[in-house]
Write a structure and sequence with these properties.
Blueprint: H1 8-11, H2 14-20, H3 30-41, E1 46-51, E2 54-58, H4 59-69, E3 74-79, E4 82-90, H5 94-103, E5 108-113, H6 117-122, E6 131-137, E7 156-163, E8 169-177, E9 182-188, H7 190-200, E10 204-208, H8 209-212, H9 218-221, E11 227-230, H10 237-248, H11 261-277, E12 289-290, E13 298-299, H12 301-307, H13 321-325, H14 331-342, H15 348-363, H16 365-376, H17 381-389, H18 395-415, H19 425-433, H20 438-447, H21 468-495, E14 501-505, E15 509-515, H22 516-523, E16 530-534, E17 538-542, H23 544-577, H24 579-605, E18 611-613, E19 618-623, H25 628-631, E20 642-645, E21 656-660, H26 667-683, E22 691-695, E23 699-704, H27 717-730, E24 736-740, H28 748-766, E25 769-774, E26 789-799, E27 802-811, H29 819-825, H30 830-846, H31 851-858, H32 862-866, H33 877-888, H34 896-911
Parallel strand pairs: 1-5, 7-10, 9-12, 10-11, 13-23, 18-22, 21-25, 21-26, 23-24, 24-25
Antiparallel strand pairs: 1-2, 2-4, 3-4, 5-6, 7-8, 8-9, 14-15, 15-17, 16-17, 19-20, 19-22, 26-27
Helix pairs in contact: 10-11, 14-24, 15-24, 16-18, 16-24, 17-18, 17-24, 18-19, 18-20, 18-24, 19-24, 21-23, 27-28, 29-30, 33-34
The structure holds adenosine-5'-diphosphate and magnesium ion.
Magnesium ion is lined by residues 667-668, 740.
Length: 927
């Protein structure tokens, strides 16, 4: 590859010379004036200022960039008597540097030369090349493959808030991926907001300045990466609909469905920001589609992290649920799978349709293999399409559209026999694949050459025979090149210098080159050879003949390239008009990949179709952990499948399983596998179990006691408690809660008490399906009092004083912790083990009857104990009515009979109230 040189073209710019003249040091040169003006208009951005083949950065920008990128900081001229710091990046490597700057949290304004320097020169020797910013590069508005992770979406999200009359705020979130044209929005409350953001993991989040400074939300927003506060006009509700309608070129947004004003506000902030960063260009976006509140399983950030859905706690993709189940063969399929897994559904019908589609591919292996082999050759249609429409596409993007269309056509044919049920997902997918224009694929097939350059500026991508004028220009160009070769041979003959060559570079153009020892010979050859340059080993010349021929070649090449670019634009325009149907085809390809890959997975790993019901059942037979089962090596033995049943014993509220057992027995694995099975099932995947019946879960919570989290280096007992508080405040009857060793991060009695009270609260107030692992085996005594509490334990065998883990979950309680045996396994010195045994024996002798067991009998039940102290929800209308009635009574003025009547009325009013001490779970307590 050529190392880019700062070109003569750039050095020849008149303004550059000015900057270097010492006498003028104090004066601002016209070029600096232009730079300062452009920079002032984009103060928050690093300014990439185009000069020839480089983007240059000046002043503070140069210092920031040189530090961030490790590139040399130089200086260029003076400004107000001081050196101007400068550094530059060559344009062909600009993407790579942009990528690094964006990843480090910087934003970049790309400023281009808007005219040929020759044009500027025509206006006078001192005029400056016209330049302006053509694009703002921010983390949420990227389209280039080099800047994006192919297997993940990159969302730009906007959050808008409305304060309702009661104290609770409502939020709207809109999110788009301009690299794939997706556009969605939803409304949610405060707790769901954090869950939504955790699910989307946006590259950039837009909020109003006011929200960013808000005492309630500000601190949370400042924990997130890529938050961009914007002036209020971006979030102006009054103009929101108009801005959106404008973007989509429609009269009213009602064309796309009904949206609340708040949703429109968030959505409008997104499109206004896109227009601002793309400098008026409008990348294609699908019309916004609304996700009704509650249509996806709500999973907060801590739970997502803890369950390692898309990455592990240490931040790796390997070892996550997603990587364990991803059998997709396209990057767009991989993106779609990540989305599905991040947003499991709550609608039994929609889940069943997804499962039906997977089942079709399981039942038809030949079809599955065919579909997957066609998909393997399919390109990333969505992203190529987006680039073409914003004018950032290249010839290979056109080829991607061509190949995408071909794949769509072949898939539509392959699917015909499987799509007979017109209601099915597969039929819908097939219909989307067939909505594209077959003539477009044919046209692209005729137009594009076999080998395509990366950039359209390189030319050579149009197939010979496609356009006659182009063929003609190319013929001229190539002919001139042959004439050039003949000229070289003639000069060599005429001069007798066999090594004479005609060469080309960017600075001199075509020239004749001979080695130094022959230089004098040509110098003396009369006026024929005109000297141009003397280097250490060579001397360079030109001739009038050569200059003319060079001009011809350049003209023919320029004309050929211009014609190719015209063809490119015409084809891009054609693609753009088809953008909507192409986007649907792209989505269909991705969906098909997901479905076929889930079928592949189910067959490969022997997954079963889950039965999704609307009751509160939760029955897993022979469940396995999808990740652990895959990483268990053959010599560590097979994964032991386990059952779990959290279904309500009386149809009313779910069970709590209290899982005890020593460390390393498999408690955490068991807990997580059941949560992961629920996530997979509601995402529309088969599950690692022999049989599963799952009553729709609406919220999933998972927390781990502090000790397990120390590896993360930030967890403390406080975090554990804050997270537990969030669960106790938010979990409802449809929730699934996983609590792993809560209370472990503090002293034994503290921890035991907290775990105790937590279980009681879950049982009596939250009434949700729960798995609770603990090493406090004292808690198992609670089963005597809490009717829906079920004791389960991990079977262990003691064998010659050693503990053997069977990884089997059985009914019952662990009688002891086996801590000493585990310590022995870990290799603690024998003397320490022996001593510990002695101490333990003494302790157990002192405390024959466990204090916990005694407490069970002494303590009143939780509900009875807390009822008087528990405040009623403030929205209790009946209570307010009773209070109002009481306030209106005047006992001194009442007859005994009136008093008695008032008493009856009070009693009647009070009877309207719900009898449960808790009512609905309350909001609040964000992690
Ligand atoms: P605990 O939470 O009880 O300390 P873990 O769930 O962390 O135990 O499990 C410890 C190890 O035991 C796991 O890393 C895994 O290798 C193994 N294991 C757990 N469950 C099973 C199982 N059902 N079958 C086989 N191995 C298992
Ligand atoms: Mg554990």
């Amino acid at each position: 590859m050529n190392v880019p040189q700062r070109s003569s073209e750039r050095l020849a710019e008149p303004e550059a010379a000015d900057a270097l003249a010492p006498a003028e040091a104090a004066r601002i040169t016209p070029m600096m004036e232009q730079y300062i003006e452009i920079k002032a208009a984009n103060p928050e951005y690093l300014l990439f200022y185009r000069m020839g083949d480089f983007y240059e950065l000046f002043f503070d920008d140069a210092e920031t960039a040189s530090r961030a990128l490790g590139i040399v900081l130089t200086k260029r001229g003076k400004h107000l008597g001081k050196d101007i710091p400068m550094c530059g990046v060559p344009i062909e490597r600009a993407d790579e540097y942009l990528h690094r700057l964006i990843a480090l949290g910087h934003r970049v304004a790309v400023c281009e030369q808007l005219e040929d320097p020759a044009e500027a020169k025509k206006r006078g020797a001192k005029s400056v090349v016209r330049r302006d910013v053509v694009r703002l590069v921010t983390p949420g508005t990227l389209t280039e493959d080099t800047l994006l992770d192919a297997r993940r979406n990159n969302f730009l999200a906007a959050i808008a808030r409305a304060r309702s009359s009661s104290e609770a705020s409502i939020f709207a979130v809109a999110w788009i991926d301009i690299s794939t044209a997706e556009f969605r929005l939803t409304e949610c409350d405060r707790a769901a907001l954090t869950a939504e953001i955790a699910r989307l993991e946006p590259g950039e989040i837009l909020v109003s300045d006011a929200l960013y400074g808000d005492p309630e939300l500000g601190p949370y927003l400042r924990t997130l990466a890529g938050v961009t506060p914007l002036p209020r006009n971006f979030f102006d509700g009054a103009t929101a609909e108009r801005r959106l309608a404008d973007y989509f070129g429609v009269a009213t947004m009602e064309a796309f469905g009904t949206f609340s004003r708040l949703e429109l506000t968030a959505a409008a902030a997104c499109v206004s920001y896109v227009e601002r960063t793309q400098l008026g260009k409008r990348p294609p976006l699908s019309p916004p589609s609304r996700e009704p509140q509650g249509s996806t399983l709500q999973i907060d950030a801590a739970t997502r992290a803890n369950l390692e859905l898309v990455r592990t706690l240490s931040g790796n993709e390997r070892g996550s649920l997603l990587s364990a189940i991803d059998r997709t063969v396209t990057v767009s399929g991989s993106r779609a799978l990540a989305q599905r897994l991040s947003a499991p559904l709550t609608d039994a019908g929609r889940i069943a349709r997804r499962l039906d589609a997977v089942a079709v591919f399981i039942a038809a292996p030949a079809l599955r293999h065919e579909v997957r082999s066609i998909l393997k050759a399919a390109p990333d249609l969505a992203r190529s399409l987006a680039r073409l429409v914003v004018g950032r596409g290249g010839p290979r993007d056109l080829a991607a559209v061509r190949d995408g269309l071909v794949a769509a056509e072949r898939l539509a044919q392959a699917l015909a026999p499987a799509a007979d049920d017109s209601e099915s997902d597969i039929a819908a997918t097939r219909a989307a694949l067939r909505r594209t224009d077959p003539a477009l694929a044919a046209e692209l097939g005729r137009a594009l050459a076999d080998d395509l350059p990366l950039s359209r500026r390189d030319g050579g991508f149009v197939r010979a025979g496609y356009a006659a004028p182009l063929d003609e220009a190319r013929r001229l160009r190539d002919e001139s090149r042959r004439v050039m070769a003949a000229l070289q041979a003639r000069y060599a003959d005429d001069t007798g210098i066999r090594s004479l060559k005609i060469k080309h570079n960017n600075v001199l153009g075509y020239f004749i080159e001979v080695s130094a020892q022959h230089g004098d010979k040509l110098m003396g050859a009369g006026a024929r050879f005109i000297h141009r340059q003397t280097l250490a080993g060579q001397v360079r010349f030109t001739t009038t003949e050569l200059a003319e021929l060079a001009g011809k070649i350049a003209n023919a090449a320029d004309r050929a390239l211009a014609l190719e670019l015209e063809i490119f634009d015409a084809l891009s325009a054609r693609v753009s008009t088809e953008a909507a149907s192409l986007k649907q085809a792209a989505d269909a390809l991705a969906a098909l990949d997901v479905t076929a890959s889930l079928a592949e997975l189910a067959v490969e790993r022997d997954y079963a179709r889950p039965e999704i019901v609307t009751a509160l059942d939760f029955v897993i037979e022979g469940g396995r952990h999808p990740v652990v089962e895959q990483v268990l090596s053959t010599d560590s033995g097979p994964f032991i499948a386990n059952d779990c049943d959290l279904s309500p014993p009386d149809g009313d509220a779910g069970r709590i399983w209290l899982v005890t057992g020593p460390n390393m027995a498999g408690k955490s694995t068991f807990l997580r596998q059941n949560a992961l099975i629920a996530v997979l099932a509601q995402s529309g995947s088969f599950v690692p179990a022999r049989r599963a019946r799952i009553g729709i879960v609406d919220r999933l919570f998972s927390r781990v006691g502090a000790a397990d989290d120390l590896a993360r280096g930030r967890s403390t007992f406080m975090v554990e408690m804050v997270e537990t508080a969030a669960i106790l405040n938010q979990a409802g009857p449809r929730s699934l809660v996983i609590l792993d060793e809560i209370g472990r991060g503090t002293a034994t009695f503290d921890g035991l008490s907290i775990a105790w009270a937590t279980i009681e609260h879950l049982h009596d107030v939250n009434r949700c399906r729960t798995l609770f692992a603990t090493h406090f085996h004292e808690l198992t005594a609670l089963a005597g009092k809490l009717t829906r509490l079920f004791n389960a334990t991990m079977r262990v065998k003691e064998w010659h004083g050693e503990v053997v883990f069977l990884h089997e979950v059985v009914a019952g309680a662990a009688d002891r912790s086996y801590g000493i045996q585990v310590a022995k396994l870990a290799g603690l010195p024998a003397a320490v083990i022996e001593r510990a045994k002695v101490v333990l024996a003494k302790l157990e002798a002192v405390d024959r009857v466990s204090p916990a067991r005694r407490l069970i009998d002494d303590l009143p039940l939780f509900a009875a104990a807390v009822r008087p102290a528990s405040p009623q929800p403030r929205s209790d209308a009946a209570l307010e009515a009773v209070i109002a009635l009481l306030a209106a009574l005047h006992p001194d003025e009442m007859s005994p009979r009136e008093a008695l009547e008032a008493l009856y009325e009070l009693k009647l009013k009070a009877a309207d109230r719900p009898s449960s001490p808790a009512g609905r779970p309350r909001e609040g307590g964000d992690p």
